[in-house]
């Protein structure tokens, strides 16, 4: 499929708005923020690519941000990989940020393991299984604190790029979207080629039932929706956007989980939506088993931009596997790649990015 | 005494270097960072202005940064005050940052009470009494993490202004300076007009003795000096400077405690000292009972700049009392005032600052 592009960035949805967003940030200095959290949902068999050891998902978010800030992980050996050995998308994010000299900050919405790098504490705690009906504690407070951080960062950065790392996050996103009246059934993405939609929908619907809410009954109460069936990344992420987007552009970097973030923002301050674009990867927009556009168009006229990454020519099998529907996105990989291209006015291309990713892959994965 | 000034900023020491530093930052956008911590030293009777309830010093740093970020405190009612009712210098800092629209971030070196605002966790813990010989845990790790944060902030801010809030901090500073060969006896400042030099020196010397070290024996080992007889603010503060000052100017905002910070930096990376200036208040440089210049000149040729604040004409007794030697400095008050003047190219003067401080005083203290 041929897409209209700016540099190696696909204008996938709301093209004119997407072009305007890119013009506004071209050559500018962004701050990349990675929000992290854990939810027990990741440990439900079959939900995430956790394999035989679901506890390993506790280590993924801290290891991802260690990779971003240090260039290697501290809380685990090597880097996070899927059971098939495919490396974390944080490898893409880190490579993009390093190439373009973009600073990064971590905001911890609630993880079981604390990263061994500086992180912003916004008072959050790890999330529970959404079938308990008490998924996230302290949502309003975390959102308010993250908002303060977002306001302050918006005064020094030209714009923000915000990503996330939370295993199991598409199922909690589906649940929050259902509660808020967005029909995302069969539309959320997966890090596995075989997207377990039936399982996700069953768990999401069961969680709503246990919480005593109907699809759409919490359209105007995102705090309650997240508290009941969300995850701890969400209030941190949404708070940052709410604090920053009235002052500077914000590229929300992720796949279908961004639908839940947009729904929260729309309910709390729709005026800032005009300053927001989604930054993701080609693997997400070309995925036949999820539908980001179908989700976003139910919420607001938000442009979707996708980094036109292509690993098919990579020297490494672990990277070529991205082309077969594994991983796809995460840790703001697509948004970080877009930001690197825009900061360098296109001189960082998908080729230069792949070269840097391969160098880091070799250093971190191949030779360990 | 007549001083040479730029706007309402006194060029007190190393005037030419001070002028150059100010030229470099004029009209630029700084990031203000407040480092915080607690040490049990604050609870030694007579050391800090804690009055009858030494536990109250646990609340001062979190309350100070809440005031900076929210405009009011959450963990206490009102604002931190001395036993005489004189308000925290955070009132000055907050007023300066607000007037000049300067963003602020908190880095927590280790407090007993967590602030109800976003803060950066660098893995620190509250400090012990320095007479235990194990004052601060995890010094090297905290320093490394703070350095990463400093590096990242230096990529988006034009320059950094770093302040501190840690009750009892001049005694730990004295101890670290003694261990590192700087004779600061009788030279450190106090928030009280009657500076208890004899008590501070006795505690510092006793701490060195208990730790089995001699004055000057740790000149080249700041990690050990802080671990044995320092406080948890120090590695956070020094790490931030070490991470940022190779790239951007850094105004280290405080009084005589900055001597300990400079000694640590000089031992670890003397090359960055040329990018550093001290920003303080007129109350510090005109204090007959301490000697900032006498401390700094033992370490390096660092300019000392002082905000020429004058509260003698204030409507409020609580502020006029600053002119009688109470409080003097803290929470980066002098540096924040300097940054506000420089960002506004002098249109924020000591008069406009006093007006804003009085408005905030009235709102927070007078009418509570």
From TrEMBL, chains A, B:
Family: Belongs to the UPF0284 family.
Organism whose genome encodes this protein: Candidatus Methanodesulfokora washburnensis
Gene3D superfamilies listed in its UniProt record: 3.40.50.10210
GO molecular function, one term: nicotinate-nucleotide-dimethylbenzimidazole phosphoribosyltransferase activity
Protein name (Swiss-Prot/TrEMBL): UPF0284 protein D6D85_12295
């Amino acid at each position: 499929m041929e897409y209209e592009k700016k540099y190696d960035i696909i204008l996938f949805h709301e093209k004119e708005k997407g072009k305007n967003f890119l013009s506004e940030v071209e050559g500018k200095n962004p701050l990349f923020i990675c929000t992290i959290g854990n939810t027990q949902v990741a440990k439900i068999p079959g939900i995430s690519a956790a394999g035989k050891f679901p506890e390993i998902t506790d280590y993924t978010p801290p290891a991802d941000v260690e990779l971003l800030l240090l260039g290697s992980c501290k809380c685990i050996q090597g880097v996070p990989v899927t059971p098939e050995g495919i490396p974390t998308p944080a490898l893409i994010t880190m490579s993009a940020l390093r190439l373009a000299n973009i600073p990064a900050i971590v905001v911890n919405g609630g993880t079981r393991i604390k990263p061994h790098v500086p992180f912003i504490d916004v008072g959050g705690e790890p999330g529970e299984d959404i079938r308990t009906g008490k998924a996230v504690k302290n949502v309003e407070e975390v959102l308010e604190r993250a908002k303060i951080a977002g306001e302050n960062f918006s005064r020094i950065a030209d714009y923000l790029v915000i990503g996330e790392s939370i295993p199991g996050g598409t199922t909690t996103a589906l649940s929050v979207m259902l509660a808020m009246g967005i029909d995302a059934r069969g539309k959320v993405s997966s890090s596995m080629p075989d997207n377990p939609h039936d399982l996700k929908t069953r768990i999401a619907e069961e969680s709503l039932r246990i919480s005593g809410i109907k699809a759409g009954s919490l359209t105007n109460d995102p705090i309650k929706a997240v508290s009941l069936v969300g995850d701890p990344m969400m209030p941190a992420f949404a708070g940052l956007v709410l604090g920053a987007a009235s002052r500077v552009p914000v590229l929300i970097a992720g796949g279908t989980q961004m639908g839940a973030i947009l729904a929260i923002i729309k309910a709390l301050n729709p005026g800032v939506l005009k300053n927001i674009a989604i930054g993701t990867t080609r693997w997400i927009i070309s995925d036949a088993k999820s539908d980001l556009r179908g989700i976003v168009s139910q919420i607001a006229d938000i442009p979707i931009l996708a980094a036109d990454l292509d690993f098919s020519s990579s020297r490494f099998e672990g990277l070529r596997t991205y082309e077969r529907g594994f991983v796809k996105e995460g840790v703001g990989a697509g948004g970080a790649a877009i930001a690197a291209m825009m900061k360098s006015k296109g001189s960082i291309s998908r080729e230069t990015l792949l070269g840097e990713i391969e160098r880091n892959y070799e250093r971190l994965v191949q030779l360990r």
